[in-house]
Amino acid sequence: MSPSKGAAPELGHTSVNFSTYKLITDILAVDLMITWALFFIELPVVLLAMSGLYVMTRSDCLVPVFVINLLVSDLIQIFSRPFINRVQLETQRLIVFWIYNMGLIASIGFMVCISFERYVMITFPLQYRSFRSLKFSVCVSVMIWSLSLADIVISLVMIIRGNLEVVFLMSSVLLFVPYPLVVFCFFGSWRALSRSVSVPPDEKKRVLRILALVLFSYTVMFLPVTVCHILISVSLENFAKVAPLKLVAGLLIYLNPLADCLMYVFLRKDIKGILKYFCYKIPNRNRDQTLDEATDGRDAENNQT
């Protein structure tokens, strides 16, 4: 092979690598600015939401366990995210990354719980009382945090063994599995609300806004990362190809705490109204039916005597 023939592919390969490197460098620079901008925006918003949640908890006997844990997971993401690519030592960087990843996985779990809670409230109002119990909510929250921690441990073991494809495959599964449940809760609640005549139109809109926000957030923020991880799990050679897309998808995930705070605002407006129309009307009907049966029994006894 002549030198001229061998030099052309090498030069082309170098130019491609340089253009890819420049693109990634530019995205990282944008990532740095957006990360710190969102840090100073999201932190006050989440703290304000937590203070409002504290006031609501003091004035109401119901403790929104899932919302509390969701905001805690948002704080973990907000504080750990700016330092993932800023620390110098590789070990410290991995620790910060896995802390952020734990908060992210937990955030997904609690988003799904809130969505499923709305669905149960609408379709099964009597069963919702047991689902809403403090003991049940705490147990589910512990399971979600345990799952997030288990994901970190298993991923570290796979990395030590050199099975990086398995790590990305696990991440893809954890990110995608809750999505069908979110879709099911949205359309199931939509169908139930369309048939209901006891709930005012404003309350219907608020419930659907919550579920639509969860579905939109999941579709826009988490599905792009899921697709990237699936491609990387097929072959590690795809990592360089999807690196720009993965960085952009990571920027979208940074908006997750803001979406959670917006969902909290909708929760504050709909919780009492929905409980009034769904949870309290059916027990009152059952009580009235019991009183009617007791009255009929007394009338029958009086007629016999």
From TrEMBL:
Residues 95-264 form the G-protein coupled receptors family 1 profile domain. The keyword Membrane applies. It is a multi-pass membrane protein. One of its GO terms (molecular function) is G protein-coupled receptor activity. It holds the Pfam family 7tm_1. Keywords: G-protein coupled receptor, Glycoprotein, Membrane, Receptor, Transducer, Transmembrane, Transmembrane helix. InterPro entries: GPCR_Rhodpsn, GPCR_Rhodpsn_7TM. PROSITE patterns: G_PROTEIN_RECEP_F1_1, G_PROTEIN_RECEP_F1_2. GO terms for biological process: phospholipase C-activating G protein-coupled receptor signaling pathway; positive regulation of Rho protein signal transduction. The chain crosses the membrane at residues 27-49, 61-80, 95-116, 136-160, 166-190, 210-232, 247-267. It is found in: Membrane. GO terms for cellular component: plasma membrane. The keyword Ligase does not apply. Belongs to the G-protein coupled receptor 1 family. This is G-protein coupled receptors family 1 profile domain-containing protein. It comes from Astyanax mexicanus (Blind cave fish).
